[in-house]
Amino acid sequence: MERYGHVCGATLVSSRWLISAAHCFQDSDAIKYSDARAWRAYLGMRVMTRGNHGGATRLIRRILLHPQYDQFTSDYDIALLELSAPVFFNDLVQPVCVPASSHTFTTGTSCFVTGWGVLMEDGELASRLQEASVKIINRKVCNKLYDDAVTPRMLCAGNLQGGVDACQGDSGGPLVCLERGRRWFLAGIVSWGEGCARQNRPGVYTQVVKFTDWIRQQTKGQV
User: Fold this and answer.
1) What is the pTM of this model?
2) 153-169 residue pLDDT tens
3) Which of 10, 75, 184, 211 could make an SS bond with 18 (beta carbons 3.0 to 4.6 A apart)?
4) Residue 122 falls in the annotated catalytic set
């Protein structure tokens, strides 16, 4: 955010659109997170303290939250951000593929979560972009760990032994899996969890395949 520094991540899915988490744009008493004018998107940046060489910076034209988003259960935790102007793709700025609604990400698949979030619970934000390898976890297994709080629109990934996870500040960022024909697909959006990297407390992500039709509808087929 323009005045508050890094708050959330997002994923570029076309030259004009980003996907993020709806919970990133809920107003607090002091800050109007829902105001598109308060946000800036930095694309292709690896180190936060340096200039964005080779990357791109854009204003946000509008923020579209899923109408069924529930801030108490974190269900339907997805948002679309339209950029003020299209970005040009290069070695540093590339879109991720949005999976078809029929696409399945198999339990045990190794995927990657990336972000600028804190490096440990209650720690400092990362100054360099971080990535972690996490495995897709069976939803029934995950639901037992989280007392049935994992809805059909959520996906769990991590390591049940703990030690690897997304954390505060990674919200809205991507969980991507390398699939068919060596293409990266957006499997999940960092949504919630209990603490960070705790044993038997994997990360919970918005399951993107459940929203493919909504994404296409809202972006008028541009994604």
Assistant:
1) 0.95
2) 999 999 999 999 999 99
3) 10
4) no
